[in-house]
Amino acid sequence: MGRRADIVVSGLVQGVGFRYMVRSVARQCLLKGEVENLEDETVRIACEGEEEGISKLVEAVRNARKPIEVDDVQVEYSEPTGRFKNFRIIIGDQLTEMSEGFGTGSAYLRMMLDKQDLMLDKQDVVISEIRSLSSNMHDMMDARFQRLEDEIAKIKTRLS
Q: pLDDT tens, 50-87?
């Protein structure tokens, strides 16, 4: 059955949806095991499966996206025990889990609002550029139309 990895991850990894990301990746990699928050604010991952799947999980953990911020990943390999049936999250008490869920939602909402602000700033720049281009285009067209009118007037004078 491959290998076992015991992984401890430190950084901003609690209250940001990290365990759910780990479970999703672990399942995609066909790993069995568990993930849990520890009291020292780290997260422990125990997983068993093919070495390639474990490597993909470790890589995903190292490169987790915001609001997750991974500072350090410690990995110890050993022989698999075969005790895991699937990959699960070890849940803490209900109040803690609810608080973490609200914290996770808040973190993602903050990120979305920050991105929205950036998008609105970019939108303002784009609108300004479009207005400038539009003004330049009008000026250019006015100059061309004036030249055409002048040339038509010269032709009419010659024909008369």
A: 999 999 999 999 999 988 999 999 999 999 999 999 99
**86 counts as catalytic:** no
What's the CATH number where 78 sits? 3.30.70.100
Structural domains of the chain, count: 1
pTM: 0.67
Clarify whether 136 is annotated catalytic. Answer: no
Of 75, 65, 66, residue with least CA distance to 45:
75
Write down the catalytic residue from 4, 19, 23, 83.
Answer: 19
CA distance 22 to 66: 14
Catalytic residue, chosen from 37, 83, 110, 144, is: 37
104 in any annotated domain = no
Whether 115 maps to a domain, the answer reads no
**Domain enclosing residue 78, as ranges:** 3-91
